[in-house]
Amino acid sequence: MTIKDTLIRGSDSLTKADKLIVQELLANYPTSGLSTVSDLAARSGVSDPSVVRFVRRLGFDSYPAFQKALLAEVDERMNSPLSMFSKVKQPAKDSFGRYLEGCADLLRRTRELNPASEYERVVEALADPDFRISVLGGRYSRYLAGYLAQHLGMLRADTRTIEPIGEEEPYVLEAFGRRDLVIIFDYRRYQADVIRTAERVRERGSRIILFTDPWRSPIARLADASLLAPVESLSPFDSTLAGMAQIEAIVAGLTAKLGHVAEARMQTLEALAVKLRPAKEHNVED
């Protein structure tokens, strides 16, 4: 198993600092691992000793030993037929096909960026009925937040969408506490009022799950779990494809996790929807 495979697999024993290091290594693989301990630590938002302890947990005696193994893997890949094949470009005339291939690559990279254990932690948190869930998005990610909240609302109670909390809304902030789980979408061109909201609810004791890009929103340092999604595309606009795929994967996992509980809730909601429908009007002939 390669170092990259080990990072992708993850482990239940990883600390929060370990997970930040893993995400940085996968986001800029292998470049981040070839920099100094201090540089990797700074990029990951952890201390130098955290990086040293992490590579030891991977099975290396030292950081230089880790880098030596990483260089060996890079050298092997650079000389493999697969690496040459991946450099072959599609004809420019097939722009539609090239774009779809780019989408497939986004999904592949999304899987590489996020250990499976991180998805499992998110599903576990969402399945906890003791949490009240609030979902928050920015200007361009608001629809992703709404899409997730709509599905969560069908599967479990106490789910809502929220807007960034303004300075004139202390009563809104006061309502947050340790019972709250706040899911935040914040991709590059990070939104200041979303970041401030994250800081404020964290101070109130709320937990945070973050959806962001490989460069990571500043909210990552506050989050209990972060899911990264590449956003580059062939168009001038960032892609939300990977973020949408993450949402659907989590919804699928949560549905399976809740099982009959989710099914019973959906049956109840359907019955209530029937009652809310207006009675059919009947035309009466003279």
Automatic annotation (TrEMBL):
Keywords (A to Z) from UniProt: DNA-binding, Transcription, Transcription regulation
The keyword Metal-binding is annotated on this UniProt entry: no
Source species, domain of life: Bacteria
The keyword DNA-binding is assigned to this record: yes
Stored Gene3D superfamilies: Glucose-6-phosphate isomerase like protein, domain 1, Winged helix-like DNA-binding domain superfamily/Winged helix DNA-binding domain
Residue ranges constituting the SIS domain according to the UniProt record: 122-264
Location of the HTH rpiR-type domain: 1-77
PROSITE patterns the record matches: HTH_LACI_1, HTH_RPIR, SIS
PANTHER family in the record: GLUCOKINASE, RPIR-FAMILY TRANSCRIPTIONAL REGULATOR
The name this protein goes by in its record: MurR/RpiR family transcriptional regulator
